Amino acid sequence: MTLSHVKIVGSGLIGTSIGLGLALKGVGVTMSDSDSRAAGLAQDLIKSPTSAPIDLVIFATPIGALNSVLDSEFLANPKAGFIDIGSVKSKVKVEVSTSKLDSKRFLPTHPMAGREVGGAESARADLFQGRPWIIDAQGVDADVVEAGVELIELLGGHKIDLDSASHDKAVALVSHLPQLVASLLAKQLSGAEQGWLDLAGAGLRDTTRIAGSDSKLWREIITANSKALSPLLKSLQGDLTALIASLEDEEVVSDFIEAGQKGRARIPGKHGGKAREYTYLPIVIEDKPGQLAALFDECADASVNVEDLTIEHSPGQFTGLITLALSKADAVTLAEHLRSNGWSVHSPRS
Amino acid sequence: MTLSHVKIVGSGLIGTSIGLGLALKGVGVTMSDSDSRAAGLAQDLIKSPTSAPIDLVIFATPIGALNSVLDSEFLANPKAGFIDIGSVKSKVKVEVSTSKLDSKRFLPTHPMAGREVGGAESARADLFQGRPWIIDAQGVDADVVEAGVELIELLGGHKIDLDSASHDKAVALVSHLPQLVASLLAKQLSGAEQGWLDLAGAGLRDTTRIAGSDSKLWREIITANSKALSPLLKSLQGDLTALIASLEDEEVVSDFIEAGQKGRARIPGKHGGKAREYTYLPIVIEDKPGQLAALFDECADASVNVEDLTIEHSPGQFTGLITLALSKADAVTLAEHLRSNGWSVHSPRS
């Protein structure tokens, strides 16, 4: 099958980004939305008109709005394939099973495309480039699966097969649980004296960064996936209760921290491989324009590949600490190179 | 007073770094340690011999080792001032009050100097440059306070006055609690399927980053500060229990996430000012050497100041998403500049 006309129901960031990406590949795109202004803006951005019959309908609405469009879209396009892009899959399958739409014509999918939010005006054709895009092809007609896979390929996504129940458990663990834990921690800062918060370092900033996320988006994801989240939160609650009871016991606290180290080590590094062992190289720079550029010029000169980095600032001061994550060999090379060029390089650590 | 000879008891990272920094400023330094190899290495690194009488003794041992050195150091140097550098202050004050050392001659301090660990060989003279260094001068003789302040100034630290009880509550909140929460979250990853962890994004990586920290160091800090930590953990436990009970209630979940946003917004930005409103500019780059350098060259060309950044990789793919945090004006300038030079810039978001 070759997609010639795709209808996208829902003209927010994801729907419009899909439309933009498809238009670039010459696929005809029709945008729609319950908000006609949003649909009009999206269609204006995308253009790509066509009179070909609709091959594929993509539901890009919030999960809660799905049941209001499933029946009408199926009745209007009885020959088309259907897919969705929701963050929680089991609930979507239930919605479809109680609609007029035949489950065999519906492919549940989830593009894991960054954390940007904000409507059609924020959409980008390259939003899915290199991002994982999960599909659950179980029991779905081959032509619909094929259309979904073609869509993912056209948009540069990275297809991953996962059944809906596993998907929901996986995202509960790697995405929804961290979200709630970050909010939980950040909430504890509410009553504190400002002077105390001025002492915050990179640790507090990193652990609470995602607590700033959109509450409208997340309340829907959390409630829709409460079944997969609940056992995880209860497990965390059990561990927390045990910790509180033994907070003065060095053995228990030590075992607890080591259990966390082991869990942390299971998170894969770059490129989805096993967690890589990076070497961390701390460098003190002056906090002014051009310093980062100069530093990365040195990295390029030394032909090393920076895998990750953090920037840390001290309160009231104008120097910054950059920590680069590198392979062990690159760290040695770069440290020598930087030192010989007068940079303030600290000892690498692993 | 001008420091002429400082004795440092404890030749680990902090003690040796203090010694290196003081030696650079011409102060005589004597290193000691219960491990004579460590003391020898530190003294070799530092040199800076002197025959002047000891003005100041710095306790740079783990808190648990303090009571074995307080009496002997006081008896050997009855005219000197004394300070310590421990991460928890109330417990140290109790140790001193039950020793022969007069509390008026002892200044409790805490240099908040990064997260590097690893003995004398990791020490750097510039470790304290621009870092907050807390002192509790209450009831301490003026000459001892003066010596402590001179020490901090010589090492380039940023002196902050805070009584010990407040200090312990502050670091419990901004440092020890995030540490335990990160371990708590990371511990939940232990039993998960590897395929699920392959879907992890920057959110999980950031929230668990500090869970990799040293358990020997942290078990001592946590148990020593259990009194300040306990109410914080119980408050978190209460919030968690309430959340679990209402996980399907959109109103409750939404309020919870908004409470987290408010807490998060209280963390100050760079330079200890009020939390700054950054604009975030996402840029897709090829994941190969030289790309970051090229990007920061563009930042320098456009004369913008990068306040913070994150790097995100997709599993199995060789493109990366860089998100730069900038002032709003700089984000607009840079986005235009990069686009006109062919970079793949996404829409900025705040």
TrEMBL record, chains A, B:
Recorded catalytic activity of this chain's protein: prephenate + NAD(+) = 3-(4-hydroxyphenyl)pyruvate + CO2 + NADH
InterPro entries for the chain: 6-PGluconate_DH-like_C_sf, ACT-like_dom_sf, ACT_dom, NAD(P)-bd_dom_sf, PDH_C, PDH_N, Preph/Arog_dehydrog, Prephen_DH
Coiled-coil ranges (or none): none
Organism: Candidatus Planktophila dulcis
SUPFAM superfamilies xref list: 6-phosphogluconate dehydrogenase C-terminal domain-like, ACT-like, NAD(P)-binding Rossmann-fold domains
Keyword Oxidoreductase included in the entry's annotation: yes
EC number of the protein: 1.3.1.12
The protein's annotated pathway: Amino-acid biosynthesis; L-tyrosine biosynthesis; (4-hydroxyphenyl)pyruvate from prephenate (NAD(+) route): step 1/1
Location of the ACT domain: 280-350
Listed GO MF terms: NAD+ binding; prephenate dehydrogenase (NAD+) activity; prephenate dehydrogenase (NADP+) activity
Superkingdom of source: Bacteria
UniProt-listed GO biological process terms: tyrosine biosynthetic process
Key words of the record: Amino-acid biosynthesis, Aromatic amino acid biosynthesis, NAD, Oxidoreductase, Tyrosine biosynthesis
Protein name: Prephenate dehydrogenase
Domain Prephenate/arogenate dehydrogenase as annotated: residue spans: 4-278
Family affiliation: Belongs to the prephenate/arogenate dehydrogenase family.
Keyword hit for Oxidoreductase: yes
